[in-house]
Amino acid sequence: MKSNIKISHIQLRALIVATVIGVGVISLPNDLAVISGKDGWILILLTSLILLPLIIMINYIFKVNPGKDYFEIGKETLGTIPFTICKLIFFAYLIVYLSFVVRRLSELIKAFLLNTTPIEIIIFLFILTSLYISSMEIDIIARAGYLIYPIILTFVGIFIVISIPTANLSDMLPAFQSDFGNIPKGLVSTFFSFTGFEVILFALPYVEDKKNALKSSLIALGTITFIYILLFLTTLTQFHIKQIQEQSFSLLMIAKVVDLPGYFLQNLDGVVMAIWTLVVFATFAPAFFGAGKILSSIFKTKSHKYFLMALVPFIYFLSLAADNYIQVRTTMLNIYNILGFLSIAVVPFLIFIVTLIKRRSKL
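Given the sequence above, the corresponding structure tokens read:
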């Protein structure tokens, strides 16, 4: 663990928010509406409540292992060979995640901004653009997240404001009418929009103010939950529930139909996509960084940046493996959810349990 890397608790909060809120939020209203109708906000709230104890556990792991990073803790707790297998699963998850994100983003950019540009060019340029900052250490990435954090909050605020004139609050009712038997399926779908919080596995060891680390992590989770619920409810006020269920990118459709006063700005959906590309960049870079860090840990090198360039073709070709957007949302998403659950839920939970057992055995 490098002692010269420092992250403030405020930067930690910004990093978590900037990493989690990415490409998934664009289609979140559609995903929720298909499964739970107007009660989709319940799934957002439940997912955040499920993540709450996980974040507390991860913070506890680092609290009782001061001065150690995630790889050192995992090796000492689970053993070299078992944790190496865990790292490989984590690496596979990040690679699938990166491929999924860049393919989904490129589909959006091609549909709303650059409809004549080959999708291969968009994917390749985005990966290369992310390569530079991903080669830095986590404190630099945290500063980038800190810069993008107010952009996210301001943008969401503006998005809500421009939707107010055409809002129909009656469309949010009636509530609690959906089939609650679909909640497990809905939680799986909502999980994607909350992924990215695993960045705390790389950032927590370097937070200067350890006392406020957990508080900042929970505030970040609360901020994300509030933004997601607010955006979902805003979508409900703009479209009928059946329209939301039929539109994959409901939030972008709001930008397409909203008319600003005086018509001083047209093609608002293009502006939205341009800004959201920057937001997705803040999501992509930490995951790219994490993939390099895992390989650096496995091969015991001083720097992770040597592996990033080698990963570019893997991410590029995997992102193009799906023939169309439907395959992206089904096959890749299913694989991604399984690997993600193992990497950022099961493994930290195992480390937490073993840590508790070892500490109690010493008493």
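The two ends are 28 Å apart (CA to CA). Try to locate this feature in the token string yourself.
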